[in-house]
Structure formats: structure tokens, C-alpha cells
Amino acid sequence: MYFYGTTGVNKNGHLEVGGVDCLELAKDFGTPLYVYDVALIRERARGFKHAFDEQNVKAQVAYASKAFSTVAMVQLAEEEGLSLDVVSGGELYTALAAGFPAERIHFHGNNKSREELEMALEHQIGCIVIDNFYEIDLLKSICIEKSTKVNVLLRVTPGIEAHTHDYILTGQEDSKFGFDLQNGQVEKALEETLPFDYFHVLGLHCHIGSQIFETMGFLLAARKIVEKMAEWQEKLSFESEVLNLGGGFGIRYTQEDEPLLPSQYVSEIIKEVKHLIEYYSLKMPEIWIEPGRSLVGDAGITLYKIGSSKDVPNVRKYLAVDGGMSDNIRPALYQAKYEAVLANKPLARANETVSIAGKCCESGDMLIWDLPLPETGEDDLLAVFCTGAYGYSMANNYNRIPRPAVVFVENGNATLVVKRETYEDLIKHDLPLK
Ligand SMILES: Cc1ncc(COP(=O)(O)O)c(C=O)c1O
Ligand SMILES: N[C@@H](CCCC[NH3+])C(=O)O
């Protein structure tokens, strides 16, 4: 079994993380429970930042908060000197409520509303990543109305297909995101934004997909964009101060996954950009990246209590846990794979392969199809690894199941950072018929 960060087995033979026994966590905070290894998040953040510092490149590492957005997480990102990518009024609100410096917030999204854009302008956030022509017009009208200047990036769709799951491809031509590079949309967008007095066009952005294990996609995207930057410098006198290459750096969910280290992704990207910039005799732009999953994914563990079981003779044995697609929709949505152990006996030898089912009223509510486990009983505690990204953030109340609590662990201390939802919470916005 591969243990991440501070996760290991303590003297009681139990799984521990951040110096805290997982059985204690389950006892104190209940299950299902999202547990985050804070030291590992810090290590990942520093890994990305140091990689830029080492190469003496001006950079911003913006945490893509969609992966896991809560007040405490945003504060941790701030402590680590990250910038922040938000993609909705709700994520922006969370960031501001957490006291995150507005000038380091970047606002994404393919359909930002007038209210969301006004909110961003009112708080003078760092920049808005304009996604489409509709948004150019909308943002112009707001800037005029409020006589406010704003920094913008243009989101470019470079036509790169990263090797990843089909559902999460975003850099290919047929995408709902961004201005297409091939068919002249980016140039048209530059022509519409550069002369507008209230816009400061900082540069260009692209994001080619998620859970990517190779650097080739990033390098190709950089090549395509820098080549155009040279053309636009000549033609439009546009000098891109920022080149944002997005997020998407892969992590290790199972033994089959072989991600690179943050420093490896970053150093290859920098090498390529430096080479291209030199080749086209351009000024080196700041390089921005937006890791989400790779900052928080493997730092998260979900603890579940095992309940019912069902044998389908000669087919499989189902073991059901007290959560499921309501707290982790990724297996149902992307056939995502996870590994898990029994937190109360992580080193016990597996003697059967079981299928971990959730408790939602949906046949597809499965967390792990084939998991080798030792003999299990009712009081066993299942720890599913690598649930830190897009678990809590995509959690839902299907079947009116309350969302789990979230706990941060570090140096032997556990801190509750999101309370468990209650049944009262579930109906708090419901209004009676009369
Ligand atoms: C624009 C943008 N930036 C950053 C991210 C973060 O991606 P990941 O969590 O894979 O690093 C995403 C999500 O895929 C995104 O759409
Ligand atoms: N939510 C997805 C990835 C999409 C990232 C946002 N563009 C996941 O769980 O893998």
C-alpha cells in the first residue's frame, strides 16, 4: 500500500494522518469525514513555487479553488503565498470572506453574470479571464458604467487534446471555453479589447485539460500561443505580459497513475517557454499556472463506516458505506478509480476482493468496484485515499444526505474546518405550502 504525505500506521496499528489516529477522528467528528493532511498541501504548494524561484522566473501559482473551496482552504492558500483562481460568485465570495487579498484573485468562467462581474470590479480583484465575445461586451458596459479599469486575460483554446478522460477535455477546438486560436477568434478578441481604455490586457490564458501526466500538451500549447504572440506583437503591437498555462497536473490515484513532480512539470514548461521567447525575440512574460487537483488531491482521505453487505454468489460481494456519490461523485461521473484500506487494520492481509457501494438510491453509486480487503465487520472504518480534489467541492444532497464535515490535521492536531450538515440545514431554504 502506498501512503501519501504524513499518512502512515501508528503504534496501535491504525491509520494515522497528520499525527492523528483516524479512529479518533471518526469518533470525534463522525463519518463520512473528509480529512486533509495540511503538511502535504503545503509541500505541494511549495513544490510549485520553488520550481519557479529556482529558475528565476516571475510567476504566479494560483490555486484553482474549484478543486476544494472553503474558507480555511483559501486561508491556507494565502499562508502559502499562492494566488487564487475562482470561477463563480460563490467561490469569489468564499475567497473574500476568508480575507484573501483581492489583487491575487483571478476570475474565470464561461458565463459570468453581470452581478458576478460587478462584484469582481467592486472588490478590485487581480484580473478577469475573459472567455467569449459576449463577456467582452458585458464587461465593457460595466466598466463604462462604473468608470472602472480592470486587468484582463483572454482565454485561448489552443486546439490541444491532452491525454485524459474525454469528459474533462477543455483545450480542444470543440469546447465551450475560450477563444479559438486557429480560426482567428483570439485575434478578433484582441482587436476588441486592446483599444478599450478601461481594459489592461495583461496576457493570454489556456487550460488544456485535467489529470494530465505528460508535459507534451503544455509544451505544444505554449508553442502555439507564443508563435501567435510574435505575430501579434508585429501586427497589433501587443506584448503579452502574462502567459497563463492553466492547471491539470495529474496525481496518483492508484498504482497505475504515474504523475511527475510539480518541479518536473514546471521546469519543462519554463525551459520550453524560455526557448520560444528567445527564438521569437520576445520579452519573457510572467508564467502563471493554476493547479487544483495537484495541490489538494492526494492530501484528502475520506473515512466511512462500513454497514451492510450483500453477496452475489460467484459474481461479487458488495460492502456498503455511509456515504457515496453524494460525497464523491467522481467514480459515477468519470469512472474514476480509488484505493482504500481499513483504517483500523491497514496492514492486515487482504483475503477477498469486494465492491464498495454508496448508500444512495442509484445502482451507479459505487465508490470502488474491485478492492482487495481483509475480513470486514460492521465496525470497520474504510479510508479512501486521494479524495481531496473535487470530492467536497462536487458533493451534493442527493437523497437528502447531509454533506460530511471537513477536518484539517497537522502536527497531531485536528481542526474542524467545515461542520457536518444537519437535517435542519437540509430544509432551511424550504418553504411550506401554507
Ligand atoms: C481554467 C482552469 N484552471 C485550472 C483548473 C484546475 O485543474 P486541475 O484541478 O486539474 O489542476 C481547471 C479545471 O480543470 C480549469 O478549468
Ligand atoms: N471535476 C473534475 C475535473 C474538472 C476540472 C475543472 N475544469 C474532476 O473531478 O476530475
UniProtKB/TrEMBL annotation:
It catalyses: meso-2,6-diaminopimelate + H(+) = L-lysine + CO2. Residues 40-296 form the Orn/DAP/Arg decarboxylase 2 N-terminal domain. Pyridoxal 5'-phosphate binds at G248, E290, P291, G292, R293, Y390. It comes from the Bacteria. Transmembrane segments: none annotated. Substrate binds at R293, R330, Y334, E362, Y390. The modification N6-(pyridoxal phosphate)lysine is found at K66. Its cofactor is pyridoxal 5'-phosphate. The keyword rRNA-binding does not apply. Residues 33-388 form the Orn/DAP/Arg decarboxylase 2 C-terminal domain. Its EC number is 4.1.1.20. Pfam families: Orn_Arg_deC_N, Orn_DAP_Arg_deC. Keywords: Amino-acid biosynthesis, Decarboxylase, Lyase, Lysine biosynthesis, Pyridoxal phosphate. Pathway: Amino-acid biosynthesis; L-lysine biosynthesis via DAP pathway; L-lysine from DL-2,6-diaminopimelate: step 1/1. Belongs to the Orn/Lys/Arg decarboxylase class-II family. LysA subfamily. Homodimer. Specifically catalyzes the decarboxylation of meso-diaminopimelate (meso-DAP) to L-lysine. NCBIfam families: lysA (TIGR01048). This is Diaminopimelate decarboxylase.
